Structure formats: C-alpha cells, structure tokens
Amino acid sequence: MKKLLALAAAAFVISAASAQVLSEPGVKNTLSVTFGKTYFDNGSKYDDPGLRFYGFIDTVQTRIDIKKFTVDAMLNWGALTNIAANKFTDDFTFVNTVVTPFWYTNHFNNGSWWTNGDAEKYYVNFIYHPHKYWDLGMGTRLEWKVGPAPTFNGNLWEPFCHIVQGGLKDAIPGQADVAGYTYYANSYTAYYYGQTKSSLAARFHYKDFIEVGGAIPSGVTTDKPVFNAGAKIHPLDFLTIAAAVDGLFRETGNIYTGVTVAFKPFILDAYLGIDYKEHNKENGGRWGTGAALTFNFSKIGLMLKPEAGATFYTYADYTPATYGGIRINWQFAEKFAFGGWSSVAFGSKDKTWEDRASTKDYWGGSVFDLRPDFTWTLDNNHSFTAFVDFQHRNNFAKETLNTWATGVYWTYKSGK
C-alpha cells in the first residue's frame, strides 16, 4: 500500500503547486498573475461583463524543524486591481489578502454565488515533539487529518480548489445558487461550525499503525466547551480506517468516517459525513457520502482520480444534491506535464416550489467547471504553469452565469 500511495502522491504534485502545510523543511513561493471575464452573456442585471485583469498574488510558505520543534507559516499577499465596469484594470491595492482570482468571477455582494472565493491570509503553526510518538500543536492551520474526504478549499492553482465538490454551496435550497455541500470533519484540528481552523491539539501515533488525537478549537469557553477528536488505524498493508467527531459537547456538530483500500490496480477512498444534532431541520441538517478512485499508470506517468458523491437533507422537501469530478496528471516528458480537473454538480431542490406559480419552474441548479493546465519544470526548484478555467453556472432560478479565468504562476521550492 505504501508504494501505491507514494505513486499517487508523486502524480498528484506533478502539475499542482499546493498551498497546504509543507510536509518537510524548506521554503516555497508561488506567484500568480491572472485575468478573465466575469459573468458574461447575462446582461447587466448583476455585474457589467468585461475582460478584466485581476492582479498578482504571492504565497510564501516556510517550515523549520529544530530538534523537537517544528514551526511553519504562510503569508498570502496581493497587488489587486480595483475593478471598474468594462475596464481591463484600474489602480492597484497592495494587501494581505484572502482573495483568489475566482473571487472576482464568482462573488456577488458577499452573497449566494460564492463558490471558492476565499483562501487564507496566513497561517502559523508551532508543534512540539516531546517523544517520537507524541505531538503537541498550537496553530491556525495544523491540518491533522485522519482520512480521505472530498476536496474543499484552496488557492486557484491547487486541486483543493476543486470548486467545492463541483460548485455546491453550504446552504438550503433557494439560499444559494446551487445548494448541497456537506462538510466532512476528517481534519479534527478544525471546527466547521465556528468557521475556524485555529486550535490547540495533541496526538499519539505509533509508527504507521495507529493515530489518536484531539483538539480544542479557538474561541470556545468553559461554559460552552467544544472538543474535536479523531483516530485512524492501519491494520493491514492495504487498509486504513478513520473516524472523527467535530463539535463534541455542542448541540450541532459533525461525524466523519472514512476508509482507504489499496487494491492492486487502483486505490479506493470512501467517506461519510453527518451533520448531527440538528434540531431545526429546515436549517439544513444533512449527511453526505462519496468515493474516489486513484489509478496510477506509472509506465506512462499518468494518474487519474475520478470522484462522486451525494448530499441528503433531513428535511423531506429537499431533494438530494449530487456531484462528480475527475483529476488528471500526465507527465508526458521529463520536464513537461499536462494536468487539470473538471467538476459537475446538481444542487438540491425544494419540492414546495412546485406549489407556487412564481417558483414552479425552479430546479436545483447546476455547475460545470473545466480547468486544464500545462507545467514546465525548469529544474528541481523552479516550475511554470499556465492554466485556463471555465465555469458554467445555471442557478436554481435558471439564470445562466458563465465565467472564465486564465493566467500563469511560478513556483519555487527549496531542496535538492
């Protein structure tokens, strides 16, 4: 299994610079420049369409290991344009930013059309290793994960920007253009209900056999405590089983379970997420399930990862939402690779819409996203990637919102 997972990881990073927490000491810098066209073919009801330059965004990461201590950090800084209607660009604003290029193309009045607009301004983590089997952590993004889950959020260039399961939004039907996202609490150092990733955490891990951990998220009180817990076990070479609870001691929270099975021709990841203890079902109590397959064709340098899933609401009038997607990485030459991903999603519908003339034609909405990229690896430290991202959105009211973005990014990573 370890060999199969290593192959998957190698293919995964061929064409995707990741802003996830660094897995080894070093420095990583990603500089991107993008432009695109916002919501075209929809008139001027929501936004004046036009070709626009979005600006520059630089993401700097570093990790230092000193004896029993690990410190890692990230800073996201941008030179962003102030967008005026039908102008390619306007004056620049220099700012520590959460903005990604798709903030401009998929964001309206901080409202319902948001898909993957925000990344992170920064993260800082401190980890103490008192023993080889113990870790004590304090940070804003520890990312201690116990199992697989659908891709969620990240910068535009990384697979974690898989357009949130095809574009589904965490909402009930009618309160987002395409509703039906389910949160999977596989990272027990985050607390979704409080919208925070900052936490104090501790974990025990014995070789590659077992991991058990817990975390206290930022902002909780002794009057209303919150505790997250997670565990995974690797009992067989081909099998890993994981479980986690997000939000213990609160009336709302999440339960997660996942499994990874390494078959010889492919790797199977399956997961289940439950939004539990939801007293007001109309506010979106739900559960979701899905799976992904990873195929590695090492002889030709190709990796394929299709995934699919569904969300079911506890409120009977809300229909299920579904999504599907695929990632591809193909190292077709020593220094050149083709990659990208595509997603499609169909949102949840409120069946009571059929009872009113004004809403009887409403549906769940859909999102389609296609993002190919091409990477040129200059050497062990430098690479350039060019990408195009197109998104077709048809919201619950059957309004079409299309957009695209394109650009290049340069990635530097220290090391041999």
SSE arrangement:
Elements: H1 2-12, E1 26-40, E2 50-66, E3 69-81, E4 92-96, H2 101-105, E5 122-131, E6 134-139, H3 163-167, E7 199-206, E8 210-217, E9 227-236, E10 239-248, E11 253-262, E12 267-276, E13 286-297, E14 302-313, E15 321-330, E16 336-346, E17 366-377, E18 382-394, E19 400-413
Can you characterise this structure?
The chain has 416 residues and is mainly beta. Helices cover 5% and strands 50% of the residues. It has an 18-stranded antiparallel beta barrel. The chain is globular.
Features:
single chain; 416 residues; mainly beta; globular; disordered N terminus
Q: Care to give the gist of this entry?
A:
With 416 residues, the protein is mainly beta. It has helices at 2-12, 101-105, 163-167, and strands at residues 26-40, 50-66, 69-81, 92-96, 122-131, 134-139, 199-206, 210-217, 227-236, 239-248, 253-262, 267-276, 286-297, 302-313, 321-330, 336-346, 366-377, 382-394, 400-413. A hairpin with a 5-residue loop joins strand 18 (382-394) and strand 19.
